[in-house]
């Protein structure tokens, strides 16, 4: 029987506003998220899919604890989220590796705040190098490995501290199609092995259905949940399975007009519609958390 290591996440009536650039006192703020209600059981993989501007990454920031200026509640195992913590890790679209550190030292950076001995940290790093299939590249620097390998390092760094929730913010979005497909398989394998709670934000509907037990479809202006689709398919997933194709096309239909074009409300917001601070993250060395 598989041991579930994740934490249960509950989001209750969450809303988020940003002041518009140049607005004075009393001006109407920009509603980025509105009435978000979502339950993520411990050990489940949930995909959040939606067009740019629907607040997907903003929601991850709130779960991570980087922003406490919101309405509603975010609870982990019944306790309110208050700031960043070692029980939550994150992997970004950009691997954000330190160029002056080799693979094993980049992974070890995720243990910076862990109360472990040097030997325990070395053992964990070796275990996670093997988990992402990078044995033999421990001493390589970021400029000496491929983009897909660098993203594996970032995933290992996010997992090495054994967080109970791993947040994935478009972690494969910058990769070519073949590398992306391989890493989707790797993420699926790692999740099946580790069984921690994973929450993936993506624009890619097929990726969302391939990885998630549940797909949360969001719509923009303001960002809100349109519907939640349960993906009742066995792992590992088969992209050629007619059931997979039906579910993928069902979710994709939420973003298309009847003639097959991208729906008007899902098109990108005009330049300047969101303030520059939306989605901005503090420097990594300021985050006391599992990366």
Write the layout of secondary structure elements.
Blueprint: E1 9-18, E2 30-40, E3 45-49, H1 56-64, E4 71-76, E5 79-80, E6 88-91, H2 103-108, H3 118-131, H4 147-159, E7 165-169, H5 177-194, E8 197-202, H6 205-211, E9 214-219, E10 224-230, H7 242-252
Parallel strand pairs: 3-8, 3-9, 6-7, 7-8
Antiparallel strand pairs: 1-2, 1-4, 4-5, 9-10
Helix pairs in contact: 3-4, 6-7
Question: What's this model, at a glance?
Answer:
With 291 residues, this protein is α/β, with parallel strands linked by helices.
Structure description:
It is a single chain. Helices cover 27% and strands 21% of the residues. It is an alpha/beta fold and 291 residues long. The two termini are 28 Å apart. Strand 9 (214-219) and strand 10 (224-230) form a beta hairpin. The chain has helices at residues 56-64, 103-108, 118-131, 147-159, 177-194, 205-211, 242-252; strands at 9-18, 30-40, 45-49, 71-76, 79-80, 88-91, 165-169, 197-202, 214-219, 224-230. Residues 264-291 have low confidence and may be disordered. It has a domain at 43-66 and 84-257: 3-Layer(aba) Sandwich (Rossmann fold), CATH 3.40.50.300.
């Amino acid at each position: 029987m598989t041991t579930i290591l994740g934490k249960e996440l509950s989001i209750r009536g969450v809303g988020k506003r940003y002041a518009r650039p140049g607005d004075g006192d009393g001006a109407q703020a920009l509603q980025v998220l509105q009435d978000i209600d979502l339950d993520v059981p411990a050990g489940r993989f949930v995909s959040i899919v939606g067009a740019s501007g629907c607040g997907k990454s903003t929601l991850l920031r709130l779960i991570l604890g980087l922003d406490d200026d919101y309405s509603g509640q975010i609870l982990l195992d019944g306790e309110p989220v208050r700031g960043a913590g070692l029980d939550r890790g994150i992997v970004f679209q950009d691997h954000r590796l330190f160029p002056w550190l080799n693979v094993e030292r980049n992974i070890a950076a995720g243990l910076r705040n862990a109360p472990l001995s040097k030997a325990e940290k070395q053992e964990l790093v070796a275990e996670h190098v093997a988990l992402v299939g990078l044995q033999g590249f421990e001493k390589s620097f970021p400029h000496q490995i491929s983009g897909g390998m660098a993203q594996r390092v970032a995933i290992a760094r996010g997992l090495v501290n054994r967080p109970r929730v791993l947040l994935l913010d478009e972690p494969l979005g910058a990769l070519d199609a073949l590398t992306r497909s391989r890493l989707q398989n790797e993420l699926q394998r790692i999740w099946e092995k580790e069984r921690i709670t994973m929450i993936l934000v993506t624009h890619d509907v097929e990726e969302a259905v391939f990885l998630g037990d549940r797909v949360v479809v969001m719509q923009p202006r303001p960002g809100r949940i349109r519907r939640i689709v349960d993906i009742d398919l066995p792992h590992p997933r088969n992209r050629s399975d007619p059931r997979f194709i039906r579910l993928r096309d069902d979710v994709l239909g939420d973003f298309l007009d009847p003639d097959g074009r991208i729906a008007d409300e899902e098109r990108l917001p005009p330049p300047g519609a969101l303030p520059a601070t939306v989605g901005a993250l503090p420097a990594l060395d300021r985050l006391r958390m599992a990366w």
